[in-house]
Amino acid sequence: MAGVDILILIVFVTFSVTAGLRARRRASKNLEEYYLAGREVKGWRAGVSMAATQFAADTPLLFAGLIAVAGVFSLWRVWVYGFAFLLMGFLFAAFWRRSGVLTDAELVEVRYSGKWRLPLRLVKATYFGLAINSVVLGFVLLATFQIVELFLPWQAWLPEAVYEGLVQATRWTGIDLSTGATPYSPEVATTNNLISIVLLMAFVALYSTTGGLRGVIATDLFQFAFAMGGSILFASILLWESGGPAGLMDRVFTLYGAERAESLLSFAPTLDEALMPFLVIMGLQWLFQMNSDGTGYLAQRCMSCATDRDARIAAFVFAWVQILGRSLVWLVIGVGLLVFYPFSAADTLDPNFAASRERTFLVGINDWMPIGARGLMITALVAALASTIDTHLNWGSSYLTNDVYKRFICESWLRRQATSNELVTVGRVTSVIVLLLGCFVAANLDSIQQGWKISLLFGAGIGSVLVLRWIWERINVQSEFAAMAVALIAGPILLWAYPDDDMEWLRLGTMVLVSTGATVLAAFTTRPTDRQVLLAFYRNVRPVGFWARTARAAGDDPASVLRTLGRKVLATLTCGGSLMLALVGVSKLFLRQPGETWFGAVLFIAGALLLVPLWWQRLVERPDELERST
Questions:
Q1: Under a CB-based contact definition with an 8 Å cutoff, are residues 384 and 219 in contact?
Q2: 490-542: per-residue pLDDT in tens?
Q3: C-alpha dihedral sign at 178, 183, 186, 190
Q4: Which long-range contacts (C-beta less than 8 Å, at least 24 apart) are formed by 113-119?
Q5: Other CB atoms within 10 Å distance of the CB of residue 257
Q6: Residue among 613, 628, 622, 575 nearest 85 (CA)
Q7: In this model, does residue 629 exceed pLDDT 60?
Q8: In this structure, what DSSP letter does residue 287 have?
Q9: Closest to 282 (Cα-Cα) out of 458, 570, 504
Q10: I need a labelling partner for 500 at 20 to 30 A (CA). Which of 290, 368, 397, 422 fits?
Q11: How many other CB atoms sit within 10 Å of the CB of residue 603?
């Protein structure tokens, strides 16, 4: 990195730390201020913050790898999540906000009855706060190692005696965090990565653990602007060097031949695709996953919003920025990398092909971006890393603080109330625990795609119960226990039974069938939730769907409650249709294949606009709670 590049990075770090310190006093008041920013966040700010978190530096690397391994068509595996994000907005966002809980694990004691509520809350806090969060943070950190290993050569900057001592310490520990992104020895690469990650974590800790969620959101907005600006600049340079969009597409066809190029660039499956397995994955992946109802940091952002309408708008902004805005830029970059770093059919047989193609995103920055522009892009990647890591540290520690320490250790075991200052301190300390576990997972992953697919499998085991508990009153505490038990037991078995990627659809399909079956079976064969608990939950949260008995007890029309669910699902599907049509249409305007006219792109965009009246009113209406009477 040149002096100008380092200066840009310093400006970014200074702003982020300052924003966190400014929020320190308010964040230190209590857990609600620390983890939910006082429940007064505007919808657009919460939405951009979610997008900044999902902008994680591992995701553009994932895009580059997917396009090379399976073509643009494979990106639907990422884009299909748009429906889940919109379902959260139109259906679940307001529910989370009305529930009044601090974490999604706390919802257990609001939604269910019986002696198993607290054990389930403890298990969920541990499962999400440590297991799931560590896996997700792990492949984010894997991308971090790849980035810092390439761009931060500490052996060239530190005194030789100091650096050699650090290398000896690394060699003594036996840790290997090298990624193969550079020609350095494993000891040197690991030492560089450790120095970088310690400094990055210290930087993130300065604002995220001091300013809480308020500090995280404030820096997320700045970090997202940096990340998008850097990505747009990178895409522009690749287009310029290729002779514009038309020149880029011509070069793809020249390098790979017409048949292979059409396969790589197609938004639709080719005739030789394994269509059924892919459709199974697409149909299951967006709904049967660990964030199917927003559980996790998405729910946290919704709970932090000022109103129901803000929570709904947050999810909408998140979905459109995430799927349309971000994907268009990364799509251009991913296709450009096919040209600047071509590969042959023989290369695809290499077991490390996916990981090597993921790294082309970083190699392209190093090779093609000039001084200053490269500093902006490196800062953008650091911003993306920081905005993801700060959220996972804040979100993960919220479980350990609110659900494990406050509820279980203090209230249930020690029979005392923890003070606000004590809880905020515990929150800051537990962030370090979450980070260390994430580093351990990262050291044992081969590629980002591997970590992503493992998290998808375990998430598929709990997706159905997370949705059903909101829309079906019969779901009880045993249902959630059953789903989690299936996920934890069946996950390793399915990974062993179907180890190959082409069997992923069987892994996911089997997990969904077994876990959903166990969830429904538990609901019908165990004692239902106490009617008074359900009534209190219904009156407070006002869920929709299959709540006939409880709705009657509350004086509502069960048919109206069910119809409202239908209207919300329709709004989700039509808004999702607009989003996907716009994505394809705008993409085809930028990346038209040789001989392809702009007419098809215009039709897609027109279709997106025609669907808008079907969902727009549901998005902006207020107040949401009056919906049932209409």
A1: no
A2: 888 988 888 877 777 888 889 999 999 999 999 999 999 999 999 999 999 99
A3: negative
A4: 113/477, 113/529, 113/530, 113/533, 114/476, 114/477, 114/527, 114/529, 114/530, 116/477, 116/478, 116/481, 117/477, 118/407, 118/408, 118/412
A5: 11
A6: 575
A7: no
A8: T
A9: 504
A10: 290
A11: 14
pLDDT score, position 212: 74
Between CA 208 and CA 90 the distance in angstroms is: 29
- Tell me the two tokens of residue 149: 């290993």
CA 342-343-344 angle, 5° bins: 135
Report the C-alpha gap between 585 and 224 in whole angstroms: 25
Q: What's the CA gap between 367 and 348, in Å, rounded?
A: 23
Task: Express each pLDDT in 410-420 by its tens digit.
Answer: 999 999 999 98
Which residues does 474 contact at the CB level (< 8 Å), separation at least 6? Answer: 523, 524, 528, 546
Q: Which two tokens stand for residue 139?
A: 């492949």
| DSSP 8-state code for residue 405 | I
Q: Cβ contacts of residue 14 below 8 Å, gap of 6+?
A: none
> Which tokens go with 69?
């391994």
More confident residue, 367 or 55: 367
Q: Which amino acid is at 492?
A: P
Query: 259: which residues sit within 8 A by CB, 6+ positions away?
Result: none
CA distance 579 to 439: 36
* Three-state SS sequence of 474-536: CCCHHHHHHHHHHHHHHHHHHHHHCCCHHHHHHHHHHHHHHHHHHHHHHHHHCCCCCHHHHHH
How far CA 305 is from CA of 99, 302, 310, 313, 434, in Å, comes to: 13, 5, 6, 10, 25
Residues above pLDDT 70, as percent of the chain: 91
**Threshold 0.85, pTM exceeds:** yes
**If you average pLDDT over residues 46-65, what whole number do you get?**
85
Alpha-carbon dihedral 409, 412, 418, 422, rounded to 10 degrees: 10
Residue type present at position 427: G
Within 8 A by CB and 6+ apart from 520, the residues are 479
Contacts 24+ apart (CB under 8 A), 246-250: 246/592, 248/332, 248/335, 248/336, 248/339, 248/591, 249/335, 249/591, 249/592, 249/593, 249/594, 250/594
Structure-token pair, residue 109: 């004691």
